[in-house]
Write a structure and sequence with these properties.
Strand content: 25-35%
Structural class: alpha+beta
Largest sheet: 5 strands, mixed
Shape: globular
Number of strands: 12
Helix content: 25-40%
Number of domains: 1
CATH class: Alpha Beta
CATH topology: 60s Ribosomal Protein L30, Chain: A
Radius of gyration: 18 Å
Distance between the termini: 45 Å
CATH superfamily: CofE-like
Order of helices and strands: EHEHEHEEEEHEEEEHEH
CATH architecture: 2-Layer Sandwich
Strand order of the largest sheet: 1-12-2-8-9
């Protein structure tokens, strides 16, 4: 598997993302995956507001979350079936604005894939929209797949045998997040200006229509559910 992150100009709000990709990604081959930073997707969709105050940001976090819990360091929130800080609202590299994460990220990924397949004349192409994530009890951020299109993001290994012939009982492999993390390590988090990354030879099965529910795990069955319940994060906000 090979990864190549592309250095670009600073993406402008409401700029044409397809034209931007064509300018900086010289080639996409059948079987590639293109990873796109969620930050430029937010800008592409015009989802920014000028930063005014801490209260304004907190009100936006509440509005954009399905569930939220204020902590000493940040707001722990659930949005788009993911646990994330501050509902994905980003201030870094935003030039005095707050960038809001789209609610229809899977539709955004599908749109990008559809247009890129047409332009590059491809049948098998994956698209990942990546965002930063902090794992429990781990220092630092990693990349995660906020949305994806064109491939199965989860591989079911149940019933297959391990090296000693024992059938696996519960194993699923999260390919989407693993690929997003690998790409993010090449793209950077600071001023690298590498919001696009091409992955060649990813071990995925390509599909025309992505089932976005395949990667979503029921909160009540989640490994961390007792921790969420103890913290009160399982309580949905009232409409």
């Amino acid at each position: 598997m090979q990864l190549n992150a592309y250095r670009t100009s600073v993406f402008k709000e409401k700029e044409d993302l397809i034209s931007f990709i064509r300018r900086y990604v010289p080639v996409l081959n059948d079987g590639d995956i293109l990873v796109v930073s969620s930050k430029i997707v937010c800008l592409w969709k015009g989802l920014s507001v000028p930063y005014k105050s801490k209260k304004q940001k907190e009100d936006l976090i509440r509005r954009e979350s399905e569930a939220f819990l204020k902590t000493k360091l940040a707001w722990l929130t659930i949005k788009n079936a993911m646990v994330m800080t501050n509902a994905g609202i980003d201030e870094s590299n935003a030039n005095g604005k707050l960038l809001l994460l789209p609610r229809d990220l899977y539709a955004c990924a599908a749109q990008l894939r559809r247009e890129l397949c047409r332009i590059y004349r491809l049948r098998r192409l994956g698209v990942i929209i990546t965002d930063s994530l902090i794992l429990p009890l781990r220092a630092g951020v990693i990349g995660a797949a906020a949305a994806y299109a064109g491939f199965h993001g989860v591989r079911d290994e149940r019933g297959k045998k391990d090296i000693f012939g024992k059938p696996l009982q519960t194993t699923f492999v999260n390919l989407a997040d693993a690929l997003a993390a690998a790409a993010a390590a090449n793209m950077g988090e600071r001023n690298e200006r590498k919001p696009l990354c091409r992955i060649e030879g990813a071990p995925v099965k390509f599909v025309n229509k992505t089932d976005e529910t395949e990667i979503v795990y029921p909160p009540e069955q989640d490994l961390y559910a007792p921790l969420f319940q103890a913290a009160g994060l399982m309580q949905r906000r009232k409409k």
